[in-house]
Q: What sequence folds into this?
């Protein structure tokens, strides 16, 4: 008797091949495929997802690396494991986010160290303005994300190095594209605010060690927020 398979769903374009991999994984689970069962061909999957066969091929390669399928040349792809429950997209997203976060930390630490003891009174006032907004909102238990962005943006602007500023801006944009996954981390980010003040004071009083420590503490809190969200996701 011929089985009526549940169709695959279209996917969005962001990190497309990983989302295709997740959709294929969902297809395997929803249709209760077992080890040795064949999945649709590249051509059929490409039609279902309205995408290129190259994107499907990359998705299959990811699943093969995860030992979920085996691709047999000239024959197609076959299920080899049905035990994986982790999202391929989120797994690779986490790796990318961690790398971007580390790169941002290293670049911003250089910026802060370069600014130590070199800002005028007006420039310090310019930098402190969003910090005061952060501290004011924190007293009400609110992490003001916009003020945080402005504070770090002012740091980059005061460096007066447009190439470096643009590089970090691009990193921020890439991190923000992942930001929706980190919803719920605001309570942890509130704990970064004293280190923003430490960073400001270190810049004002030319204290390199305190400046570097503040950058490191904020970076470690960002990492902790990522681990917290990952833990919550696994508990759901």
A:
């Amino acid at each position: 008797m011929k089985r009526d398979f549940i169709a695959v769903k279209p996917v969005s374009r962001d990190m497309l091949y990983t989302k295709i991999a997740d959709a294929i994984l969902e297809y395997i689970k929803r249709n209760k495929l077992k080890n040795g069962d064949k999945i649709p061909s590249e051509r059929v999957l490409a039609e279902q997802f309205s995408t290129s066969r190259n994107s499907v091929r990359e998705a299959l390669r990811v699943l093969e690396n995860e030992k979920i399928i085996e691709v047999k040349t000239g024959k197609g792809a076959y299920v080899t494991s049905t035990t994986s429950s982790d999202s391929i997209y989120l797994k690779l997203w986490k790796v990318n986010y961690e790398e971007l976060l580390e790169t941002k930390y290293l670049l911003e630490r250089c910026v802060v160290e370069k600014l130590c003891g070199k800002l005028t009174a007006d420039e310090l006032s310019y930098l402190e303005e969003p910090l005061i907004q952060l501290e004011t909102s924190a007293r009400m238990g609110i992490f003001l994300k916009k003020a945080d962005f402005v504070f770090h943006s002012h740091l980059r602007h005061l460096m007066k190095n447009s190439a470096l500023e643009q590089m970090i801006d691009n990193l921020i944009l890439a991190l923000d594209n992942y930001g929706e996954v980190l919803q719920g981390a605001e309570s942890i980010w509130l704990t970064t605010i004293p280190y923003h003040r430490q960073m400001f004071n270190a810049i004002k009083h030319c204290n390199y060690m305190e400046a570097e420590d503040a950058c490191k503490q904020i970076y470690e809190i960002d990492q902790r927020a990522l681990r917290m969200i990952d833990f919550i996701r696994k508990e759901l």
User: Anything to note?
Assistant: DSSP finds ten helices and two strands in the chain. The beta strands are 69-72, 76-79. The first strand starts at residue 69 and ends at 72.
